[in-house]
Amino acid sequence: MPETHETRRPLPGIRALLPGVRRAAARIDAGTPPQRDRAVDALRAFAVLGVVLGHWLVTALVADGNTLRAASPLGPMPWLAPVSWMFQTLAVFFMVGGHVATRSLASAREREPGGTRGTYFRWLRARLARLFGPVVAVLAVWTVGVVGLLLGGASFVTVHTVVKLALSPLWFLLVFAALTAATPLLVRLNPLWPLAVVLHVDLVRFGLGGPSWLGWVNVAAGWLVPYTVGAAWTRGELERPRAGWILFAGGAVTTALLVGFAGYPASMVGVPGAAVSNLNPPTLAAVTFGLAQCGLALLLRDRLRRAMRRPLAWAAVALVNLSAMTVFLWHQTAMMATTATGLFVGRLPGLHTVPDGLDWVAARLLWLPVFALMLGVCWAAFHGFESGGGRRVRREPGGSRVVRVGPRGKTPGLRETPHV
Question: Taking the complete model, does pTM exceed 0.70, yes or no?
Answer without folding.
Answer: yes
